[in-house]
Design goal:
about 70 residues, mainly alpha
Length: about 70
């Protein structure tokens, strides 16, 4: 999937990231939320060492592979 200059898909990912970062139970930082939103939008598996990000990914239905724990 491509994000064109118009930013249509990117805006969708930003909106999703904003929604997820506002959900306090997910404990997501804005950057982590954006990574999850982009992975969700283009149907990719997220690979992370961040256990909290992996938990949030599972909670929102993003495929995730946890390769270790950074926190």
């Amino acid at each position: 999937a491509q994000v064109g200059a118009s930013g249509g898909r990117l805006m969708t990912a930003y909106a999703l990231a904003a929604e997820w970062s506002a959900r306090h139970e997910l404990s997501l930082r804005a950057g982590d939320a954006l990574h999850l939103a982009v992975a969700s939008d283009v149907d990719l598996e997220l690979v992370t060492r961040d256990a909290a990000q992996a938990r949030a990914a599972r909670a929102v239905g993003v495929a995730v592979q946890e390769i270790g724990s950074a926190r």
